[in-house]
Amino acid sequence: MPWKNGSGTTTEIAIDPPGADVGNRFRWRLSIADVERSGPFSAFAGYERTIMVIAGQGMDLSVGGQPARRLDRTFEPFVFSGDAPAECRLLGGPIRDFNLMVERSSLRSRLEVMHLDATPRSFDPASGEWLIHCFAGVVELGTPADASAVMLQSDWTAVFGGAGGGWQMAAAAGSRAVTAIIHLMSA
Fold first, then answer.
1. What is the pLDDT of residues 74-133, one digit of tens each?
2. Architecture of the CATH domain 9-103
3. How many CA atoms lie within 13 A of 61 on its CB side?
4. Which residues share a beta bridge with 62?
5. Can you tell me the distance from the alpha carbon of 23 to that of 57, in angstroms, rounded to the nearest whole number?
6. Average pLDDT of the segment spanning 162-183
7. Cα(165)–Cα(30) distance, integer angstroms
8. What is the DSSP code string of 122-137?
């Protein structure tokens, strides 16, 4: 879909509430943008934005008149206010970036990139909402007592909210995986 300002395109992964669009209010949105050229980002007043480069040489991102922040390492999240004007200067050609936007009045977020192996990592879906996006590899998701794990393939996203009990995630047997683990909590 086109950016709100018409200067690029985005693949929307998920949005809450379902069916919402960027022209109206939404609680959170997860997307991947293809940035073909330097220029301004769309404004999202009232939202906290987290962005990270997932492919390409990166960009310098100027937000709200502050000195530009160099984003040239993949999978390194950068948080900024959607209220401030933001503009990027590409460092060496097109990039892809991963974007999380949350409405500040209702949510707080934490995005962490994990490089998983077969060692299980625990998380508790009852403690808010969780978004798990697999960038590479295959992630097994399940409860310790449940033998039927969900297999999260590369470029797939799982959304959890309000489920009880402890869950675990790990890379599928004999492999490794790269994931974004996003925890959304009430403000």
1. 999 999 999 999 999 999 999 999 999 999 999 999 999 999 999 988 877 767 888 999
2. Sandwich (2.60)
3. 23
4. 87
5. 30
6. 85
7. 25
8. EE-GGGSEEEEEEEES
> Which residue has 């301004």 as its token pair?
40
10 close to 95: Cβ distance less than 8 angstroms: no
- What would the two tokens of residue 103 be? 């409405």
Count of H helices and E strands in the chain?
A: 0, 17
Transcribe 61-119 into DSSP letters: EEETTSPPEEE-STT--EEEETTS-EEEEESSS-EEEEEEEEETTTEEEEEEEEEE-SS
Fold of domain 107-186: Jelly Rolls (2.60.120)
Domain with CATH 2.60.120.10 in the chain: 9-103, 107-186
